[in-house]
Structure formats: structure tokens, C-alpha cells
């Protein structure tokens, strides 16, 4: 009896959910989240062929199983690669110690990716569960890194994602290199 009532309940929940989904997909273009994605594409100077990748990049693991965790791993590798390309390109004699220092500088949560991510206002874009603080540096960072993973997958090229990273990050690097 109890399990039967549960089934009915589950069916009602499921159909309400699908109706909500149907409604959501019909007015997808006009939702605040979709407008935020449009604005974000303008800010980073890259338009996605498949906006689904950016949508996923802006979805924290607390919000959905379809989230940015794996994309942010790729994004983190894209950033490490483009930082290495940049410093080795500038100076082929750079020591491994210095190169590693630059890589870890650029990978730092509090001073690098959370700063870049906040500058893009990702805390106001990324979807999180109601209990999750979207301004937390780790949340902002995973969203920021995931953008570059998403671009790499969208173009199937790491280079393109790296270029967008430098465009977004360059004022910050200018500041660091002036010191
Ligand atoms: C959310 O996180 C930010 C950054 O860590 C912090 O300043 C803010 O107080 C937090 N907000 C809440 C409601 O916990």
C-alpha cells in the first residue's frame, strides 16, 4: 500500500517535472539564465556552436548531475598548457622551477581563477543548489575553468580555448608581470 502510494506520488512528481521541463525548453531563449549565457559569450569574446557546453560549464555539481566537474578538469589543463606555452615561448631557457611557479600561480584558487571568475560575474551566472554559496571561490573557480574546457570541446581545439583564456586573463597577467 505504502509503496503503491509512493508510485502514484512519484508519477505525479515526474509528470509535473516533465511539464516544467517542457515549459522551460519552450521559453529557453528568454530565461534569465540564457540571457546571462549570451552576455557571458560577449564578455569572453567567444560564441559557442553548441551552447549546451557553456550551459553545462555554468552548472555546479550541487545543482545537477549534468555539471561542470569534468569540464573544469579539462579547463584546468588548458590553462596549464597555455601558461606553459606562453612562458616557454617567451624564454626557452626558463627553469623548470620558474615554469612550475608560473603554472601554480595561475592555478591558484583565491588569487587567480576566483579573481578572474568574479570579474566575469560568474557567481551571478553559475547555477547552484539553494544551500550552496555561488560566491565561494571553489564554485567560481570550477565555473571559470570549465569555460575553457567547454570551448576546447566546442572547437575540438585546445589552442582556441587557450587564446580565449589569455584574452580574459591578460589584464591580470599584465598586473602580475609589472610587479
Ligand atoms: C559566500 O562566500 C563569500 C566568499 O567566500 C563570503 O564572502 C560570503 O559571506 C558568503 N555568503 C554566505 C551567505 O555565506
Automatic annotation (TrEMBL):
GO terms for cellular component: nucleus. Pfam families: Ribonucleas_3_3. One of its GO terms (molecular function) is double-stranded RNA binding. Residues 37-156 form the RNase III domain. Residues 1-20 form the signal peptide. Keywords: RNA-binding, Signal. InterPro entries: RNase_III_dom (IPR000999), RNase_III_sf (IPR036389). GO terms for biological process: regulation of gene expression; RNA processing. PANTHER family: RIBONUCLEASE 3, RIBONUCLEASE III. This is RNase III domain-containing protein.
